[in-house]
Amino acid sequence: MLFPARFLSSLLLLAPLLCQAQQPALPSRPPATEPQSKPQTAKPETVPAAPPLTLAEAIRLGLENNYDIRVSRQDERLAENNVSRGNAGQLPVANGNFVQTYNRNNVRQEFSQGDPRINNNVPTRQFNANVAATWTIFDGLGMFIAYDRLKAIEQGQRQVTRAVMEENVANITDAYFVVVRESGKIKSIEEALKIGQARVDLTKARVDVGVSAKVEVLTARVDYNADRSILIQQQEALKRAKINLNNLLGRNPNLDFQPRDSIVVAQNLTREAVLQAVSQNNPRLQQARTATDVATLDRRLRRAERFPQLGLTAGYGRTSNFNGAAFLPGTRDLGTTTTLSNGFNYGVVAAIPLFDGFNRNRLEQNARITEEQTRLQLAQTQLSLEAEAEQAFAQYQNRLQLLELEEANILLARENVAITLERYRLGLLTPLALREAQRTQLEAEVRLLDIRYQAKQAEIVLRRLSSGLVQENGQ
């Protein structure tokens, strides 16, 4: 009676493990021959509970805390402040001056006849106040070209800020899905450990009833410990992924969290649409085009320096002089005098460039060379972006095909493990066959996670290149 009792107790012990090895606990579980995809973002049992973190929240934190974005936004504010007609030289310039001086001098006056006169500590005062205004009314249209140049620089800085934001959002998104992938791998390894534990328990039960040798239990434990070693290494990989994401979010690297979003790959991207969006919307390409526009405006500014400059000037001045040792009219007697003067002045100012040692020619030639350089850089940038888009789209298409294959293959692998475990329980298969089925399922799980992540990674690159990660308002 001992054999049936032990065998029955072993079956009761293995029943829940068999269910867990095939499918996560659900209110209604489908048959073992039709397993469903497991959620990849479930918190691993070996990691303590942590606050949830969604992808949207991670991006928001990154945009708020990232130092590159904050510095670029300050540069954008500087460029915006520089866009003014006064900075371009289109408005008048007015200045006020005020001068008040006090003097005390020793005066010795000698005449052709008579004794010299000596006065010590003679006070004098001078007061001068004026307001002067100048307004350039023609400079070869340079002031208007300068204003357009300031606006182009502002637009270029906006594109730089947008590019920095796009790149940081792409990095954050990629790092977030790395955490999701590593979490999914831990879940898969834990499912493999459940199968390994079921194998150990079943083998012990068979040894207890005398139908298996102890070496099979030892082998099962060795394989189980090997899987535990893989789990510990995977926990380290998950920790590194979380530290990397926290660093991108500008917060404590040791802050733990639970990813809430899963990896969902869009399958509606087309090559033509991506290349068109890259050509029209990519901020780096737009920045290169703006740099070409700025170089063209610089050349036109150099050309405008050849034209005469014409301006208007006007002002008002008041002067007061006090002399404590002045001759009185018609006498040689000394007294004090005060002189006051005030009035308006106005006129026209013209400057005609005649010769400056051919420096204007040199500067204009350099501006043309710079303009050609920016055009070459624009062509190089466009070619590099198109090549990067082609590579990403090739990876995207390839991973979609592999993803479809692996999603079908994982169902087969799970069904194979369920059947193999059942046949091993009945003594119809060797431990080696069960271990091979377990290893095959784990490899299929890991391949599926890697391919799904790689497909998402290619999608992120395509969206970054086509400027589809950040909206116009920066959200």
Explain this structure to me?
InterPro entries: OMP_efflux (IPR003423), TolC-like (IPR051906). It is found in: Cell outer membrane. The protein has helices spanning 2-22, 55-65, 67-82, 142-208, 214-248, 271-281, 283-304, 359-425, 431-465; strands spanning 52-53, 93-109, 117-138, 258-259, 309-327, 334-351. The chain is α+β, with helices and mostly antiparallel strands and 475 residues long. The protein has one domain: Outer membrane efflux proteins (OEP). The strands form two sheets. It has a four-stranded antiparallel β-sheet with strand order 2-3-5-6, with no helix packed on it. Strands 1-4 form a two-stranded parallel sheet. A hairpin with a 6-residue loop joins strand 5 (309-327) and strand 6. Helix 1 (2-22) runs antiparallel to helix 4 (142-208), helix 7 (283-304) runs antiparallel to helix 8 (359-425) and helix 8 (359-425) packs antiparallel against helix 9. It is elongated, with a radius of gyration of 42 Å.
Q: N-to-C SSE series?
A: HEHHEEHHEHHEEHH
**What class would the helix/strand composition place it in?**
alpha+beta
For CATH, the homologous superfamily is named as: Outer membrane efflux proteins (OEP)
Q: Assign the CATH class.
A: Mainly Alpha
What low-confidence regions span 5 or more consecutive residues with pLDDT below 50? 1-47
List the helices and strands and how they pair.
Elements: H1 2-22, E1 52-53, H2 55-65, H3 67-82, E2 93-109, E3 117-138, H4 142-208, H5 214-248, E4 258-259, H6 271-281, H7 283-304, E5 309-327, E6 334-351, H8 359-425, H9 431-465
Parallel strand pairs: 1-4
Antiparallel strand pairs: 2-3, 3-5, 5-6
Helix pairs in contact: 1-4, 2-4, 3-4, 4-5, 4-7, 4-9, 6-8, 7-8, 8-9
